[in-house]
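Hey, weird one. I pasted the Odorant receptor sequence into the form twice and got a warning about non-standard characters only the second time. First submission, copied straight from the form history:
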Amino acid sequence: MDLFIEELMLYLTIVASASKISTFVLMKEKILRLLEILESDIFQPHDEHEEQILVEANRFNSRYWKVVAFISYTSNLTNMALPLLAYILGKDKLKPPICSYSFLSDETRQTLIYPIYLYQCLGIHFCMLSNVNIDTFILGLMILVIAQLDILAVQLKNITNPSNSGVVNERDQSSRIDDTDAILKFNKAVQRYNHITEFCSLIENVFSISLFTQFSIASGVICVCLFRFTLPSPLQYYIFLGTYIFIMIIQILVPSWFGTRIMDKSCLLSHALYSCDWTPRCHQFKSSMRIFMERTKRPLSITGWKMFPMSLTTFTSFQHFLFLTVKSVTRLIKLICRDIVGGPQWDVTRKRRRQRAFLGHLLAVGNKACFYGDVKGNNDFASD
């Protein structure tokens, strides 16, 4: 069982890393397009306040990368260095840190233990680096989307403020506000919103499959690690499992959190536009305003393979189903072990009762997870 769990963790991690790396290789042109949009004139700040929003977003990206890199390095070095330290102190034999290579004989593994150990350490190190950098890159794009939505909200609030180009005309001995400047500002804000929408769609087209794979693989790894905690292991392995579970949770929690922020910020644009001084404006401005507010009722979102949105509701649904699944699997293993220990002469009625109870528990798990996802997931999902 220990061997199967460790090999399964390695397999799932490699599949997730291969999916992310292949995305960068196959979607290189679209990724360059994303960077071009970020460097375009429409996304550049126009005053100190807008520039401060972008500076804070970039600063957060840098801090987040440092935190994730520190935790990843800690988990990786703990798993690699402690077995080597125990071998140097003469407390145990040197073992491969990742894969045991059970298809090789014990004599062959002991003969090639140093090349195998070095190969696995380098391989898992580069795998860790690719995961850290790709995950933070995707998150950085989402944070920049939030920053652009904040800038757009500021522009919409100040859309009716007078500027140097504003003109005031007098007709019939009464002052009347000229809406030409406000309409021009509103057109620029709509253009910025269209570019943000295009940017979100391009992020989804590039990383949709990777995000879906990441959610699925991370949930599977968390499930396997939680079950592995129930089995006896040395202290350093528990440290590795704890940090590894934390990283897997972060990998799906953070995109879900900022996906929810994107949806909330896009919905709040209508409130920002409503905050401007729109009551004395012309009919053309008010009509355009109504159309834009109707559009913002459908929030921007980034989905995983067009199946579920990146939101906290999706995260809680995944975790809810995950923990119920671990509980069901643990119960199934206990039932199997109890039957095996009891020998071939078990009570048929008791066996059928256990099978019915377990199937009923599985159905309850599925119904709860589906109900939880349907009730809360539909509120966040934005159809195109």
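That's the output from the first submission. The warning seems to come from a hidden character in my clipboard, not from the data itself. The two ends are 45 Å apart (CA to CA).
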